[in-house]
Design goal:
Layout lengths: L7 E6 L3 H4 L14 H14 L3 E6 L37 E6 L10 H7 L4 E7 L1 H14 L3 E5 L3 E2 L3 H15 L1 E3 L1 H7 L2
Parallel strand pairs: 1-2, 1-4, 2-3, 4-5, 4-6, 5-7
Helix pairs in contact: 4-5
Length: 188
């Protein structure tokens, strides 16, 4: 990293069984298209010793959750759908888990505080789904004073038109949408 490059962290959003294993509550076939780019980002971040945030939606077992007024029950702590997708389990000293109960990794969590304490200036946000958790996380990252980067190939949705609109909004108002190659360079 050159002196002019901002300190960067990788935020992986909801890389869990729920979206990537057939039969799980939020599975959609196109999610698999993001796995190669997500693996490349994770490998590059690990090789460079970058902070990796594994932001995962998890809900308390046995309790009601406001989110279920719009969505079916999902991601209950201890359930298989809430587990990390194989190969994306946190490891090492610079990887943390950010448990979230809403779409954004920054809402009602200490993620902004943690990243500011580590002098992080830029976050690369990748995972699923573009029009829901990625957009919400990107918007809240911006609101918390971080430069936001979303690698185009490392996110998608089962609603392609909404994913396209979300990426357009992110690039226009919130941060930058870049090719995967550029995001990988930012992690070097």
């Amino acid at each position: 990293m050159t002196g002019s490059e901002p300190a960067t962290a990788l935020v992986l959003v909801d890389v869990t069984n729920s979206f990537f294993l057939e039969g799980m509550p939020n599975f959609y076939p196109a999610a698999a298209e993001t796995l190669g780019p997500l693996r490349a980002l994770l490998a590059k971040a690990r090789a460079a010793g970058r902070i990796v945030v594994h932001a995962v939606e998890q809900h308390y077992p046995g309790f009601d959750d406001y989110e279920w007024r719009k969505l079916p029950r999902h991601h209950v702590i201890g359930d298989r759908d809430a587990d990390f997708f194989a190969g994306f389990e946190p490891r090492g000293e610079v990887e943390i888990i950010c448990r979230k109960r809403r779409f954004s990794a920054f809402f009602a969590t200490d993620l902004a505080l943690f990243l500011h304490e580590q002098a992080i200036e830029r976050v690369i946000v990748a995972g699923v789904k573009t029009n829901v958790c990625i957009r919400a996380t990107a918007q809240d990252a911006f609101a918390n004073g971080f430069d936001v980067v979303v690698p185009r190939e490392a996110t998608n949705s089962n609603r392609p038109h909404l994913a396209a609109a979300s990426l357009e909004d992110i690039d226009r108002y919130i941060g930058r949408v870049v090719p995967i190659e550029r995001a990988l360079e930012m992690l070097t």
